[in-house]
Each structure stands twice: as structure tokens, then as C-alpha cells.
Amino acid sequence: MIAQLTGTVIAVSGTWVVLDLSGLGVRALCTPATVASVRVGEPTTLHTSLVVREDSLTLYGFTSPDERDAFELVQSASGIGPKIAQAVVSVLPPEELRVAISQGNVAALTRVPGIGPKGAQKMIIELKDRVNALGAVPNLSAGAASLPAEDWREQVASGLESLGWGGKDAHAAVERVAHLREEDPAVGIGDLMRAALKSLAR
Fold first, then answer.
1. What does the H/E/C string look like for 138-153?
2. CA-CA distance, 173 to 12, in Å (whole number)?
3. Is 86 left (phi over 0), alpha (psi -120 to 50) or beta?
4. Checking CA distances to 54, which of 15, 107, 180, 182 falls within 20 to 30 Å?
């Protein structure tokens, strides 16, 4: 099991980060919070979870052990795979997830694409006794690598679609956060993704 990687960030997208590990480039799928916390050219540590399938090995990376633990915990609920688990931790940071499950907050869980009321209730029942181990929300840095003029729109939209939202909703969310890019051209892709996620969760 690969639990942690430390290296230099050489590429960032809306949903992944590539680390250079002494000449070996490793790509990890990441949440918007993780993407927002890294900068190209700087060293970083990712807490990782390796998902093994018959035809693939997929590495997921997170800024904190709590976020990774939340990702793995959610997958222990029946019917939840890594794609939905990543969407869960993208919409609900560890502390919010812990509170939502502990308090039986179905509405909070159904903000995640792919989780309906029945799925949320099942998750609450199956995880309620184990969720208290989750810690606090990770501390995010203010920005990330800047992007070429309009590339950010496609990256944010494709990132949202990979988390389960439809193309129409994803592009509408992009338009709702466009003002952030206009106000600060250096705003990072991770921050734009977080803002878009918040607009979709309302």
C-alpha cells in the first residue's frame, strides 16, 4: 500500500497532481482542496490511497491523512466506489462529513452527485459508529498555479463532470465563478473548483 508520497509538483489540473519523485512522475487523482493546496515547482507531500482493480491501479492523493481516511471510510459503505467517495470528500471536508453522518443529515449528503436520499440513509446507518475518528478540515493555502487565459473554464468543467455533475450544470457553475477569475487572474484552479462546488451545493 502506498500511503504517502513526497516530491516536487510538476503539473496540476482540476482533478490531478503530478509529483516528480527523483525522475519518476507519479499522477494522483485529487480533490479540489488538494489541488488548491499545491504549486507547480514546489515540494509537497500527498497522503495517498491506492485503489486496485483487475484492469487498473489508481492512486488518489490528499493534503491530509483525515481527507484520505474519509475517502477510504466512505468506500466501506455498500455501493460506494472511489469515484463517488472522491465526490463526497470534495463536497464535504472530513469534519463536515463527520457531523453530517453523526447527526443523520441526509440533506447534506445528498448534495453529492450520485447520492440520493436512500443512499444517504444507508451511508449514515453503516458509518455512524465509525465516523467519529475523522478529524478537522484541512488547512488550505490561498492559491495554486495560474492558468492560461481560458484553459481554466474547461479544466473546472471537466473536473466537475468527473465528480458526477452533468455538462450543463458544470458549465453553469463555471459561469457563476467566472467573476473570481476576472477579479484575480492569478486565482488557482483548485480555488475555482471549490467555489464552483459550493455554488452547486446550494
1. CCCCCCCCCCCCCHHH
2. 21
3. alpha
4. 15
Examine the pLDDT at 148 and tell me if it is beyond 50: no
pLDDT tens digits along 121-139 = 999 999 988 887 675 433 3
Residues in the chain: 202
Beta pairing partners, 62: 47
Which helix (H) or strand (E) segment holds residue 125: the answer is helix 117-127
Answer whether 31's CB lies under 8 Å from 46's CB: no
Q: Give the Cα separation of 132 and 9 in Å (integer).
A: 32
Cell of 138: 484541512
Q: Is residue 146 part of a domain?
A: no
Asked if 144 contacts 12 with a C-beta cutoff of 8 angstroms, the reply is yes
Is residue 142 pLDDT above 70, yes or no? Answer: no
E strand spans, 31-154: 43-53, 56-62
Domain residues for the domain of 69 are 65-133
Helix (H) or strand (E) holding 25: strand 24-30
Using a 10 angstrom Cβ sphere, with 0-12 exposed, 13-18 middle and 19 or more buried, the burial of residue 10 is middle
CA distance 162 to 167: 10
CATH classification at residue 117: 1.10.150.20
As for how many domains the chain has, the answer is 3
Say whether pLDDT at 67 is over 60: yes
Q: Could you tell me which residues are beta bridge partners of residue 137?
A: none
The CATH number that applies at residue 43 is 2.40.50.140
